[in-house]
Specification:
heterodimer, A: eight-stranded mixed β-sheet, four-stranded antiparallel β-sheet, 21 strands, flat, B: alpha/beta, Rossmann fold, Helicase, Ruva Protein, domain 3
C-alpha cells in the first residue's frame, strides 16, 4: 500500500483499536506509566507507516524499550551505561526464576520487557491483518469481547469504550473491505471511486452510532451475571442485598426488601399429597424498617424421627392428620414443611437442628455435616379453626401471653412513621376482636389501589420505611410488600405477628399412581412466597394471606353464637381448584388498567392467537409446505405453463421471449451459462449434452433476431417446434 | 465456426495462401481481415517462419503489387516514401516513388530503423498519403502494410512508441509450425516454389468492392455496447497504466465486421468480438511496471476482461 492519507487512516484506526486494549489495564492493574506503552504502540505504527527499513524499525523500538525500562526502574543517567549491566544481570537471574516456575518471583524489569514484547507482537499482528490480509474482523471481535468481559466482571466501565471501539472497528472494516474489493475486481482506485465508498461509510457509521446512542435502551433481561453467578454458586436464591434485579426464589437474607425480580420456573420440589398447602421454610420476627431479621437465635437438636418442636397449632385447635412426600430438586440443607409439622421421615437417620425463633430446620448427616436430602415424608396436622374461638381475643391478657413474647412479636422500629398506625386504626375501627381486625387489614389489600407487580417495585431510599413507602406512595409490589405491611399494621395495634417465608402450594401435575387419593404438585422458584402469621392465645399462629390474588387454604368455620354451624366458610377455595399462579396474578391487574382501545385490540388479537394458535400453526405449516413444494418443483410445472402460453402465438418475434425463458429453464435444469459465454458456444454445450442440433439451430435464429434485428418471415413455426422440443427435454 | 459457410471469394484466397503456407490458417485469416478492414498488421516474430511468403501469396491472390522494405538503421525516410530528384534533361524535380507506393507492403524488422523513418512509414499508414517537398502524394488503394518486429533482439533496435502501435489494426504472432507441418514444408521445399503457380482470385477493384461491402455489415447496438464495455474495462483494470483508446473500439468493430463477412454473415456476433479482442486490443494497452514484473501480459489482461464482461443476450430496452 502506498503512503497516502488512506493508509495513514488505516494505521491510525489500527492504533486506536489496540489502544482500547491498554485503557483498562491502567485502571484494573496497578500499572504505572501506561502512557509509555501507548506511545510505544504509536511509535511502532508510525515506523511501519513511514516504511523505515526493518533494521531501523527494530533499532528505534529497542531504543524506546530500553529508554522506558530505564525511566521506570533506574535513577542513574541513561547514558551512564551502568544501569544496563544491572538490567542484563537482572534478566539472567530471572531466567532461572522462570525455569523454576516461580512466576511471582519475576522482577518488574522483566515484566516491563515482556509487556513491551507482547505489544510489539500485537502491533506486528495488527499490521499484518491490516495490510496483508486486509481483514480485521477477528481482532475487532476480540476487542469487543475483551471490553465487554471486563465491563461485566470488573470495575472497568466500558460504556464509552464500546462506542469508540464500534466506530473505529466499523470504519476500519469498511475501508479494508473497499481495498479488498479493489484487489479482487482488479480495479485501480481513483479518488471518485474512493469518495463514492467512503462517504456512505462515514454517513452509515455516524447514523448508526447516533441512533445507537439516542435510542431508548431496555433494562437488561438477564440479571447482572456476577451477582447472579455468585448466587448460583451459593445454591441459588440468595438475594443480592436487594440491589439490582434479583431472581425469584427462596433466600435467607431479607434485610433489604424491595426492588424488582424476575421469574424462574426451575423446580424446587414436587410433593405427593392429598391437597395443596403452603410450605414454610422460616419465619422472622424483627422488622427493621427495611426488612426482616431474626431477633435472636437459639438452636435445638433433635433426632430425625422425633416430634419436631415447632408448635404453631396448640392442642385446643381441631386438627386432622395428613402426610405428604417431598421430592427435592434443589440442594437445600433445610426442611420445607407445612405449618402443622409433626415428624419427618428420611431414608437415612439424620439429625435436625431447629433454629428458633426462625423455626428454620436444618438437616445434618451422621458426621454433623449439612445434608441436602433428595426426598422425605412429613406428617403434619391440618387445623380447622373455629371463627368463634378466634374472635375471643380482643385484648391482651397477660395470663395468656407472656410479656416478653408479646414484646418480641409486636416489635416495631422506633422511627416507624406515625401514619401507619393511623391507617391501621382507621381500617379496623369498626372491629372489636383481633381476628376481625386481621381480616379487615387482609381485605384492605384487595382494594383496587393496590397492584401486584414484580418488575415495577421500588427499593426504599435511605430515609424511607419499606412499609410506609408501599402503603402510601407506590402501592405496587409483590408478596413481601403485602405481607410485611400487614404484619406491621397489626403490630401497631398491638397484635403479635410474624413474617413467614416459604412456598405456595404449586401447580397440580397429575394424580398419584400409587395412591389415587393423592396428587403430585410441582413447586418452582416462582412459587416462593411470604405471608403473615398472627398469634391468637389458645389458637396459636394462624396464617393470613394479604397478597393480592393469592389464597391460602386455611379452613375456618364460622358458627352462630349459639354454637350450631350456620355456614362453613373457608377463606379459601376448595382444594382441587388449581390455585392461580403468580404469572396470571401479575397480568390480571395490569389488564384491568388497560382502558384505551389500542391495548384492547392488542389484547383481543392475543386472545385470538392464544385460542387458535394450533389452527393457525397448522394452516401456516400447510401453506408454507405447499409453497415450498411448488417452489422445489417449479422446474416441472412452470415450463408447462410456458408451453401452453406460446402454443397459440404466431408472431416471429416471439422467439425473443421464448428463448430467454428457455435459457432460464436450462439454468434451472442445471445447465448454467456463464455470463461471459456467448450464446453460440452455450448452444454447442447444450447440444452435446442432449446429443442433438436443436439448440444451435434455435440459437442461430435468436442471434439473427438479437444481433441483426431481422427475422426470416414465418420462422416462428420452426423455431417454436425446436423450442418446444428443448423445453420438453428439460422436463423429461 | 466450421459449420458456417465462408464467403466463397475469401475462401478461395485462403485456399490460395494455403498452397504456399502450411498451417497458419488463423494468421492468414487475420491478415486478410486487416486487409479487408483497411487496416494494417504488426507481426511479432522471429525471422524464417514464412512471413514474406504469406504476404506475397496474399498479394498475388488479390493481384496487388507487392513491395518489401527491409528496415535497417541507416534507412532514411525518403528511402521509404520516395524522393524528388532533379532531372537535368527536363530541368525540373521529378518524383521518384519509394516502396511505399505499392498496394501490399512488407515492412520487415520495423524496429531496426530510426524513429524518423519509422514515423514516415506510420504517417503514411495513417494518412494514406505522403508529403514530399510540399507535394502530397496519395498512396495507392488498397494499401496494406504488414510490419514485422523481431522480439528477441533488443540491441540496436528502436522499439516503436506505444502511441504509434495503435496505428496497427491487429497484432499477432506467427509461431513455429507443428512437426507434421514442418515436414510438409521440407517436402515442398524440394520442389519448385509454388508461389509462381498462384493465380489471382480477384483483382484490386474486386477487393475494393469487398471492402465497401464490409462496411455495410450490421453491428447491433447491443454489440456496440459490448465493445465499449470491453474497451472501457481495459482502462479501469488493475495493473493497466493506459487502457485502449476509442480508436481501439473502432478497430475492434471494423475487424469484427470483416470477420463476420468472412464467415458469410452480414451481422456481427459477440463470438467475433471475443475472438478478435486479444489481437485488436493487446497492443493498445500499456501495463504498469509492477504488472510487467509480475509477468502479466497484455493478452492476459484482455482475456481477463472478456471473462468479466457479460455477453449481451437480450435486446436493449430503450
Amino acid at each position: 500500500m502506498k503512503r497516502n492519507l488512506q493508509t495513514f487512516l488505516v494505521y491510525l484506526l489500527g492504533f486506536l483499536l489496540l489502544w482500547e486494549w491498554l485503557r483498562p489495564v491502567e485502571q484494573l492493574t496497578q500499572t504505572d506509566h501506561i502512557e509509555m506503552f501507548v506511545i510505544f504502540i504509536l511509535l511502532s505504527f508510525a515506523v511501519a507507516f513511514l516504511k523505515l527499513k526493518r533494521i531501523w524499525q527494530i533499532i528505534v523500538k529497542i531504543w524506546f524499550i530500553l529508554f522506558s525500562v530505564h525511566m521506570f526502574h533506574y535513577d542513574t543517567g541513561f547514558f551512564q551505561l551502568g544501569w544496563l549491566t544491572s538490567f542484563l544481570s537482572d534478566l539472567t537471574t530471572n531466567i532461572s526464576v522462570i525455569f523454576a516456575f516461580n512466576w511471582m518471583g519475576i522482577t518488574n524489569e522483566l515484566r516491563t520487557l515482556l509487556f513491551f514484547t507482547l505489544l510489539w507482537l500485537m502491533v506486528y499482528l495488527v499490521n499484518y491483518w491490516l495490510l496483508n490480509r486486509k481483514r480485521i474482523f477477528i481482532f475487532f471481535f476480540m476487542t469487543l469481547i475483551y471490553i465487554t468481559v471486563l465491563d461485566t466482571f470488573t470495575l472497568y466501565n466500558a460504556s464509552t469504550a464500546i462506542v469508540r471501539t464500534v466506530v473505529v472497528g466499523f470504519a476500519v472494516m469498511g475501508m479494508l473491505t473497499y481495498y479488498r474489493i479493489l484487489d479482487k475486481e482488479e480495479v485501480s482506485a481513483d479518488s471518485i471511486l474512493t469518495h463514492k465508498w467512503m462517504r456512505p461509510l462515514v454517513l452509515m457509521i455516524a447514523f448508526s452510532v447516533i441512533v445507537g446512542i439516542m435510542a431508548p435502551k431496555f433494562e437488561p433481561i438477564w440479571p447482572d451475571p456476577v451477582p447472579y453467578l455468585k448466587a448460583a454458586g451459593n445454591k441459588g436464591g440468595e438475594d443480592a442485598n436487594g440491589k439490582g434485579v434479583s431472581k425469584v426464589g427462596y433466600g435467607s437474607d431479607d434485610t433489604q426488601l424491595g426492588g424488582p425480580f424476575i421469574g424462574d420456573d426451575s423446580t424446587v420440589f414436587k410433593t405427593e399429597a392429598k391437597q395443596k398447602n403452603y410450605w414454610k421454610v422460616e419465619t422472622k420476627d424483627h422488622y427493621t424498617g427495611k426488612g426482616w431479621i431474626p431477633s435472636t437465635s437459639t438452636t435445638v437438636t433433635v433426632d430425625g424421627d422425633d416430634v419436631i418442636p415447632v408448635l404453631s397449632i396448640p392442642s385446643t385447635v381441631q386438627t386432622r392428620e395428613e402426610s405428604a412426600r417431598l421430592f427435592l430438586f434443589m440442594d437445600y440443607e433445610h426442611l420445607i414443611y407445612p405449618a402443622g409439622i409433626q415428624r419427618v421421615q428420611f431414608e437415612r437417620s439424620y439429625t435436625l437442628e431447629i433454629d428458633s425463633p426462625k423455626e428454620k430446620i436444618s438437616i445434618f448427616g451422621f458426621n454433623s455435616k449439612p445434608i441436602a436430602p433428595d426426598a422425605y415424608t412429613v406428617e403434619y396436622k391440618i387445623p380447622r379453626y373455629e371463627a368463634s374461638d378466634l374472635r375471643e381475643t380482643s385484648v391482651v391478657d397477660p395470663g395468656q401471653i407472656d410479656p416478653g413474647f408479646l414484646a418480641q412479636y409486636t416489635q416495631l422500629p422506633e422511627n416507624l412513621p406515625e401514619r401507619i398506625k393511623e391507617l391501621a386504626v382507621s381500617i379496623t375501627e369498626r372491629e372489636t376482636n383481633w381476628f376481625d381486625k386481621a381480616k379487615a387489614i387482609e381485605r384492605y389489600f384487595s382494594g383496587s389501589e393496590f397492584r401486584y407487580d414484580q418488575k415495577d417495585v421500588a427499593v426504599p431510599g435511605e430515609n424511607d420505611d419499606y412499609v410506609d413507602q408501599f402503603l402510601f406512595d407506590t402501592k405496587v409490589g409483590y408478596c413481601d410488600n403485602f405481607s410485611t405491611s400487614m404484619s406491621v399494621l397489626l403490630r401497631t395495634l398491638g397484635i403479635p405477628t410474624r413474617w413467614v417465608k416459604g412456598y405456595t402450594g404449586g401447580e397440580f401435575q397429575e394424580f398419584s399412581e400409587g395412591d389415587t387419593s393423592k396428587s403430585i404438585y410441582e413447586i418452582t422458584n416462582n412459587n416462593a412466597h411470604s405471608w403473615v402469621e398472627v398469634y391468637f392465645p389458645n389458637q396459636g399462629w394462624v396464617p393470613f394471606e394479604p397478597t393480592k390474588g393469592f389464597t391460602n387454604d386455611v379452613s375456618i368455620s364460622f358458627t352462630n353464637p349459639d354454637g350450631t354451624p350456620a355456614a362453613v366458610e373457608t377463606t379459601a377455595q376448595p382444594a382441587p381448584k388449581p390455585q392461580q399462579n403468580q404469572e396470571k396474578v401479575s397480568t390480571s391487574p395490569t389488564a384491568e388498567n388497560q382502558s384505551f382501545s389500542f391495548n384492547g385490540i392488542w389484547l383481543e388479537i392475543k386472545i385470538f392467537f392464544n385460542n387458535n394458535w394450533k389452527m393457525i400453526l397448522f394452516v401456516s405449516a400447510i401453506v408454507v409446505g405447499a409453497a415450498g413444494l411448488l417452489y422445489r418443483s417449479r422446474g416441472r410445472w412452470i415450463p408447462n405453463l410456458y408451453l401452453l402460453q406460446f402454443r397459440l402465438r404466431k408472431k416471429d418475434e416471439n422467439i425473443g421471449k421464448a428463448y430467454l425463458i428457455l435459457l432460464e429453464q436450462l439454468e434451472r435444469y442445471g445447465l448454467k451459462r456463464n455470463e461471459n459465454q456467448t450464446l453460440r458456444s452455450y448452444a454447442r454445450y447444450i447440444d452435446t449434452f442432449f446429443e442433438s442440433r436443436e439448440m444451435s439451430k434455435l440459437t442461430d435464429r435468436y442471434e439473427e433476431y438479437l444481433y441483426h434485428q431481422k427475422l426470416p418471415e414465418g420462422s416462428w413455426k420452426d423455431s417454436h417446434e425446436l423450442w418446444e422440443n428443448l423445453i420438453k427435454k428439460t422436463i423429461a | 465456426m466450421a459449420r458456417e459457410q465462408m464467403n466463397p471469394t475469401i475462401e478461395k484466397i485462403l485456399i490460395n495462401i494455403e498452397k504456399v503456407m502450411i498451417g497458419k490458417r488463423n494468421v492468414a485469416e487475420l491478415s486478410l481481415i486487416a486487409l479487408l478492414a483497411e487496416g494494417h498488421v504488426l507481426l511479432e516474430d522471429v525471422p524464417g517462419v514464412g512471413k514474406t511468403m504469406m504476404v506475397r501469396a496474399l498479394a498475388k491472390s488479390v493481384n496487388a503489387n507487392f513491395r518489401r522494405i527491409q528496415f535497417t538503421p541507416d534507412l532514411l525516410p525518403s528511402d521509404v516514401t520516395g524522393i524528388s530528384i532533379y532531372n537535368p534533361k527536363e530541368m525540373e524535380f521529378e518524383f521518384r516513388p519509394g516502396p511505399l507506393m505499392g498496394n501490399i507492403i512488407l515492412a520487415d524488422e520495423i524496429n531496426r530503423t530510426s524513429p524518423k523513418t519509422q514515423s514516415a512509414l506510420l504517417e503514411g499508414m495513417e494518412e494514406a498519403s505522403v508529403t514530399i517537398d510540399g507535394v502530397t502524394h496519395r498512396l495507392h488503394k488498397p494499401f496494406f502494410v504488414m510490419a514485422t518486429q523481431n522480439p528477441i533482439e533488443y540491441e540496436g533496435t528502436y522499439p516503436l512508441p506505444e502511441a504509434q502501435l495503435d496505428r496497427f489494426l491487429l497484432k499477432m504472432k506467427m509461431g513455429y509450425p507443428e512437426v507434421e507441418e514442418e515436414i510438409e514444408v521440407l517436402n515442398r521445399a524440394q520442389r519448385v516454389p509454388p508461389i509462381e503457380d498462384l493465380y489471382p482470385v480477384i483483382d484490386l477493384e474486386g477487393l475494393i468492392a469487398l471492402q465497401k461491402e464490409i462496411k455495410e455489415v450490421y453491428v447491433d447496438d447491443t454489440i456496440k455496447r459490448y465493445i465499449v464495455d470491453i474497451v472501457n474495462q481495459t482502462r479501469r483494470f488493475a495493473g493497466v497504466y493506459l487502457g485502449a483508446s476509442p480508436r481501439g473500439s473502432i478497430a475492434l468493430m471494423k475487424a469484427a465486421q470483416a470477420y463476420a463477412f468472412m464467415y458469410g454473415r452480414d451481422y456481427v456476433l459477440p463470438d467475433d468480438i471475443q475472438y478478435l479482442a486479444p489481437f485488436v486490443l493487446s497492443h493498445r494497452i500499456i501495463l504498469k511496471s509492477e504488472a510487467k514484473f509480475e509477468g502479466i501480459t497484455a493478452e492476459e489482461i484482455v482475456n481477463r476482461v472478456i471473462m468479466r464482461i457479460p455477453v449481451p443476450v437480450q435486446r436493449l430496452v430503450k
